[in-house]
Design goal:
The protein is 30% helix and 16% strand. The chain is α/β, with parallel strands linked by helices. The chain has a single domain, classed as 3-Layer(aba) Sandwich (Rossmann fold), CATH 3.40.50.
Length: 281
């Protein structure tokens, strides 16, 4: 399956999805240092600069066709509790979410995978996440989501994130309406804020995320690797990078890239679920 990786950073999404058997055919990343990292590890994959200028026509003109999967962790600065909580409206950095929705409707892949901090779900009393799902539905796609922390996959830090999968509905018109009962399926989270929860009995859901326990997610990674039989991923207590030592080249850039990157183990799990679904179809 061919992947278009948006807001690519240093390629965490692609690293995981390629381990699941997919192929990255294009990146889109505006920052210079991550672009150098991508060019080093994926020397033959084109890197586009500005997501706002990327279109299906431009990709086709460059010979990039048949994209099956779009992925991207759009900016979190205006969503995160550590940010200014400006939301995903026009003019905010996190408002670049709208470019994800635009490209979803323009390219119309089989699947899209989006990631962000969990505050996206509860922010503005749930309205940010409502807007995300609304935008997905308006280009004719269905969606499901799940919060998967890196610690559940063996990491030594929590790093909880919301992961969203979008795909065309299997049958009929299932565009969400804001008064739809789908929106009523919510509960009050442990922090007192509203969280939306997908209905596991809904015929809209393929169950790619919601149909699995975290234990099943962990077991899904216990498969053979190229060049060996090592199950799963190896976690070091700390990355091999001097955080305070002098003389480490590009130290601040490296730390920023690590902080912005997705944990590749989780895209791998989602990629495996998608590949299983496609094989079943």
């Amino acid at each position: 399956m061919k992947v278009l990786d948006l807001f690519s950073g240093i390629g965490g999404f692609s690293l995981g999805l390629e381990r699941a058997g997919m192929e990255t055919v294009a990146f889109c990343e505006i920052e210079e240092y991550p672009r150098k990292v991508l060019a080093k590890h994926w020397p033959n994959v084109p890197i586009y600069n500005d997501v706002r200028e990327l279109t299906n026509d431009r990709l086709r003109a460059d010979g990039i066709t048949g994209i099956d999967v779009i992925c991207g962790g759009f900016p979190c600065q205006d969503i995160s509790a550590a940010g200014n909580q400006a939301g995903i409206g026009e003019g905010t950095r996190s408002g670049l979410w709208s470019e994800c929705a635009r490209l979803l409707g323009d390219i119309r892949p089989k699947y899209a995978i989006f990631e962000n901090v969990t505050a996206l779900i509860s922010g503005d009393n749930g309205r940010w996440f409502e807007q995300v799902l609304w935008d997905i539905s308006q280009v004719g796609y269905d969606a499901e989501w799940h919060c998967i922390p890196a610690s559940e996959l063996g990491a030594h830090h929590h790093r909880d994130r919301v992961w969203i999968i979008a795909y065309p509905p299997s049958a009929g018109d299932t565009k969400f309406q804001k008064e739809d009962s789908f929106w009523e399926n919510r509960h009050i989270g442990h922090n007192g804020e509203i969280e939306y929860v997908a209905d596991p009995n809904s015929q809209r859901l393929q169950g790619l995320l919601t149909g699995r326990t975290l234990q099943e997610w962990r077991e899904a990674t216990r498969h053979s690797r190229q060049g060996g039989e090592s199950p799963g991923w190896s976690w070091a207590t700390e990355p091999d990078l001097g955080r305070v030592a002098n003389g480490v080249p590009q130290r601040s850039h490296r730390l920023k890239c690590l902080g912005n990157a997705v944990v590749p183990q989780i895209p791998e799990l989602i990629g495996l679920a998608i590949m299983e679904q496609c094989n079943a179809d």
